[in-house]
Amino acid sequence: MRATVTVNLKEGVLDPQGKAIEHALHNLGFSNVAEVRAGKVISFLIDGTDEAAARAQAVEMARKLLANTVIERFDVEVHP
Amino acid sequence: MRATVTVNLKEGVLDPQGKAIEHALHNLGFSNVAEVRAGKVISFLIDGTDEAAARAQAVEMARKLLANTVIERFDVEVHP
Fold first, then answer.
1. What is the pLDDT of residues A16-67, one digit of tens each?
2. Which chain A residue is nearest to residue B42, measuring alpha carbons?
3. Can you tell me the distance from the alpha carbon of A16 to that of A20, in angstroms, rounded to the nearest whole number?
4. Domain map (residue ranges) of chain B
5. ipTM attached to this prediction
6. What is the CATH number of domain B2-79?
7. Chain A nearest C-alpha distance from B58 (Å)
8. Residues near A57 by Cβ (< 8 Å), separated by ≥ 6?
């Protein structure tokens, strides 16, 4: 089944990439945009039929590799 | 209102970052994982109350700046 892990910087952690995007958007005339945050999304197939097991594995993968939990939080979605 | 633009490489476009993550996951013992794709997610606040207008603006922002539509596709979500 397909799973998606979305990783974002925690609230309060400086996000220079988001700031750069915000400046570029303002320069393009999109002046009503604020609080831009940039994150990453990793999607993959997990071989198996147990949705709960797939979710638990995706969380473990996020903790071990995909996210730096000191400064990032992550969400896991599993699509059966 | 808050909006999110998710940007992923189109099907068939080589994804070296996804491949690197896949190799790392296999090396960590997650051998049942395949087709890893890495993308980015940009979230922001749009000042305004019209959901349709906010969505149209987010699509325009994605086309002009956030995504390279030659090799990337994007999805827009607006959370009123």
1. 999 999 999 999 999 999 999 999 999 999 999 999 999 999 999 999 999 9
2. A38
3. 6
4. 2-79
5. 0.90
6. 3.30.1280.10
7. 10
8. A46, B30, B32
